[in-house]
Design goal:
This protein is of the alpha/beta class and about 425 residues long. The chain has 3 domains: about 5-135 and about 300-335, 3-Layer(aba) Sandwich (Rossmann fold), CATH 3.40.50.720; about 135-295, Dihydrodipicolinate Reductase, domain 2 (2-Layer Sandwich), CATH 3.30.360; about 345-434, Alpha-Beta Plaits (2-Layer Sandwich), CATH 3.30.70. The chain is built from 14 helices and 17 strands. Strands 7, 8, 9, 10, 11, 12, 13, 14, 15, 16 and 17 form an 11-stranded mixed sheet that branches. A 6-stranded parallel sheet has the order 3-2-1-4-5-6, sandwiched between helices. Helix 4 (about 80-95) runs parallel beside helix 5 (about 105-120) and helix 13 runs antiparallel to helix 14 (about 405-415). The longest helix is centred in the first third of the chain and has 18 residues, at about 105-120. The radius of gyration is 24 Å and the shape is elongated. The structure holds L-homoserine. L-homoserine (HSE) binds near residues 157 and 298.
Length: about 425
């Protein structure tokens, strides 16, 4: 069969990894794909002597790849929203299939991109956009296709997980660990995307759409980062039997869909709590299969290249198949997407960890518990440690309650004269979200 010709746009960490993997495993890959896969053209911003580009056409104009008649599949690895968006739309307009690792692009422009691809009968594959080398998109879209998916929860930002792990295990400084993650090529060009949860929110938006068959709605995904986690919260959480992880949670209930990214206390004995370093993991609960767990490298050159190459092979296989029988981009047929609303976070129900500093005198705890009692919030555990001369920290775990109710209770607590400063609030999940 005729070889498939690929144009690679972007020769950074993942691009170089893709070249390496395709070269090293060329024979194995073509045995699987049923035809040879050739990198025919690569875009580079400056001459590269560090990578062997023998036999590959190079260009500094990425649009030349989208417009080249020889190219069957355009692989977009430049990242960002603007040029990548233009490139992908141009490739689709020219009838080319696209493979991308760009979660921001899919989360923000995916609905438009998939509609254009549908019109032109081309595929846009994006396995590498979520959880690096873990084939989570394939698992949800194909492996779990028999299930009604009830919820999923994942550690989907390697940099954030690396930072939290190093801080917890080695007491390292936040900025120092972040610099290492950048040097290792894990972090986004703008690392606030990692630490403020934007990168994870892009990925969760994609997973939520695949799980529930809803259009991509990044703007409705609740996002909170890890930059405000204090070392004492890590310690108190551990004392209570929990580990703090930065989770993306997508859950369906009677009212709609929850899409939320935030630091979360999870029981230290659960599997996700042991996912450390740059590793990612996603738990998916389906009604037929029950809980499932997918684990692996969430970032890095070759793990991400593993997903890119898998997509290239998938696209290569479909070149000779009937377009109407392809796996739909968002797992469900485009004319059967659901209009289930994405819920405001105030309607979401979780348990809570609260930390506050209070004046050390009789009756303060009673005032706090009275606020909870009036709001109908049950307390699960209470810690009071390291008393100062005239003040002390109070740490509380509550039972599940709607976020809107908790917001009001926190505001009432913060207005008490004997409560000093703001209340730190973290959400708690037992990962049996029902
Ligand atoms: N910055 C991302 C992460 C890269 O750390 O997970 C992979 O998407």
């Amino acid at each position: 069969m005729k070889p498939v010709k690929v144009g690679l746009c972007g020769l950074g960490t993942v691009g170089a990894g893709t070249l390496n993997v395709l070269k090293r495993n060329a024979e194995e890959i073509s045995r699987r794909a049923g035809r040879q896969i050739i990198i025919d053209m690569v875009s580079i911003r400056r001459p590269r002597t560090d990578i062997d580009l023998t036999g590959i056409r190079t260009t500094s104009d990425i649009m030349a790849i989208a417009n080249d008649p020889e190219i069957d599949i355009v692989v977009e690895l430049i990242g960002g929203y603007d040029t990548a968006h233009e490139l992908v739309m141009q490739a689709i307009a020219n009838g080319k299939h696209v493979v991308t690792a760009n979660k921001a692009l899919i989360a923000v422009h995916g609905n438009e991109i998939f509609a254009a691809a549908q019109e032109k009968n081309v595929m846009v594959a994006f396995e590498a956009s979520v959880a690096g080398g873990i084939p989570i998109i394939k698992a949800i879209r194909e492996g779990l296709t028999a299930n009604t998916i009830q919820w999923l929860a994942g550690i989907i930002n390697g940099t954030g997980n690396f930072i939290l792990t190093e801080m917890r295990e080695k007491g390292r400084d936040f900025a120092d660990v972040l610099a290492e993650a950048q040097a290792l090529g894990y972090a986004e060009a703008d690392p606030t995307f990692d630490v403020e949860g934007i990168d994870a929110a892009h990925k969760l938006t994609i997973l939520g759409s695949l799980a529930f068959g809803i259009p991509l709605q990044f703007e409705k995904t609740f996002t909170e980062g890890i930059s405000k986690i204090a070392p004492e919260d890590v310690t108190y959480a551990e004392a209570l039997g929990y580990t703090i992880k930065h989770l993306g949670v997508a859950r369906r209930n009677e009212q709609g869909v929850e899409l939320r990214v935030h630091p979360t206390l999870i029981p230290s004995k659960c599997l996700l709590a042991s996912v450390n370093g740059v590793k990612n993991a996603v738990m998916v609960q389906g009604d037929a299969v029950g809980p499932t767990l997918y684990y692996g490298a969430g970032a890095g050159a070759e793990p991400t290249a593993s997903a890119v190459v898998a997509d290239i092979v998938d696209v290569a296989r479909t070149l000779t198949s009937d377009p109407t029988n392809r796996v739909p981009h968002l797992a469900f047929q485009p004319d059967h997407l659901s209009d289930l609303p994405v819920l405001d976070v105030a309607a979401v129900e979780t348990a809570y960890y609260l930390r506050m500093q209070v004046v050390e005198k009789p009756g303060v705890l009673a005032q706090i518990t009275s606020i909870f009692s009036k709001a109908g919030i049950s307390i699960e555990a209470l810690l009071q440690k390291e008393h100062g001369v005239d003040n002390a920290p109070v740490i509380l775990l509550t039972k599940r309650v709607r976020e809107g109710v908790m917001n009001e209770a926190i505001a009432a607590i913060e207005s008490l004269e004997d409560v000093m400063g703001p209340v730190t609030r973290l959400r708690v999940e037992q990962l049996d979200l029902g």
